[in-house]
Amino acid sequence: MEYDNDENTWRRPSIPKVERTTCQQIPKRSTSVAVVVLGLAVLSCLLGYCVLSETLPHESKTLRLVIILFRHGARTPVKTYNSDPYKNYQWPDGFGSLTNVGKLQLYELGKKFRSYYTNFILEDYYEKDVFIRSSDRSRCLMSAYTFLAGLFPPTERQMWHPEMQWQPIPVHALPRELDNIVSSTKPCKVWSEMYKEQLAAHDADPKFTELFDYLTKHTNQTLRSILDTDFLYSTLLTEQEAGLKLPDWTKTVFPSKMRTPFMLSLATLSYNESLQRFQIGPLLKEIRQYFDETAVHSNVDRTLYIYSGHDTTIVSLWRALGFEELIEPEYGASVVLELHEDVENESFFVKTFYRNNSKIEEPIELKPKFCDDPCTYTRFKDHVSKLIPDDWEAECGNTRS
Ligand SMILES: *[C@@H]1O[C@H](CO)[C@@H](O)[C@H](O)[C@H]1NC(C)=O
Ligand SMILES: *[C@@H]1O[C@H](CO)[C@@H](O)[C@H](O)[C@H]1NC(C)=O
Ligand SMILES: *[C@@H]1O[C@H](CO)[C@@H](O)[C@H](O)[C@H]1NC(C)=O
Ligand SMILES: *[C@@H]1O[C@H](CO)[C@@H](O)[C@H](O)[C@H]1NC(C)=O
Description:
Helix content is 38%, strand content 11%.
């Protein structure tokens, strides 16, 4: 029986290498649970097989690192349009802000991840185990905080106030003009030029002409781009969610005919591999670094990274994984990357999951085309490395002052 009292043995069986038996990786949630688990484990080992590890849901003996990227929760509109009957509507928290519904969505999502990874993510929050990075938009920061409230409610030891079922957990964010990791708002000249070209090509597609004519007429403003359609789509969606009755003219186009150009607009930012290098390359670089650190055991504590971003972040990562299908990531949609270790042959592989909103119970496992099943880390790394500029700044053609 190799199970010892080292807090983290079950998560990192290869460091230090311990002799393996069928019962080595009994998970530990808390001391009291561990005692029960230990007892049961001894019992099941005596019976010759490890019942527990087979029956606990979503437990994996091979899981080593989890990276979660989610979209913020429900928000108010970012802008209005000329003929908008709700132009002067008083949004109590202002434009583009997280609503109470949105706060709850991410809180529930955090709780979902807590139970999904119940045997992987420790109940106690330790700073060394987890790193959270957010886009510097208030709605993303706030989404990260409510997600963390659901993921890490204070354990008894961590209660610091008798009434507060909440503990402070740091969320890091780069200022928007420096963020090329989550919000992709750091200026990049080469990307901007390529994006404009790609956008113009999509805008000129004759299949949208009729829609643009219709929208221009009814919004009482020039609307001839999938990008404007994107903004209008989001505005109508948020107004509808707030219980406002949309004008009759929207009935024939929203969401139906507007949905494709809306999704295409999100996809245009990272439409092909050249655009992806700039748009999502820096995030892929971080992911590669974290996977590498785990693979060479140089950062054995860090087992969870969390990113709080936008629909565009989700779509860009999705496309960088080789998926071309247009998607609409709803509030709290998430992409999860898991790094697994095959202890038998000391190799690593990657699993990828997608949940298109915060309510999804069972994620869809994605099967990237660039690798087999299982997707070896070597193959994964080869693919993402093609999308990572050595020197982002220089490749962007940004002149350093
Ligand atoms: C359309 O916009 C123009 C100028 O912005 C304004 O004068 C006009 O009243 C608007 N028409 C409607 C129907 O909103
Ligand atoms: C991606 O699209 C841009 C804009 O249309 C273009 O300049 C670039 O060459 C394309 N890259 C690839 C790899 O197709
Ligand atoms: C390692 O194990 C995985 C999963 O069992 C298998 O797919 C892979 O081929 C193995 N690799 C080697 C080098 O044996
Ligand atoms: C989200 O995913 C579920 C199933 O996983 C699917 O039924 C639903 O249509 C999807 N919604 C959108 C907007 O793609």
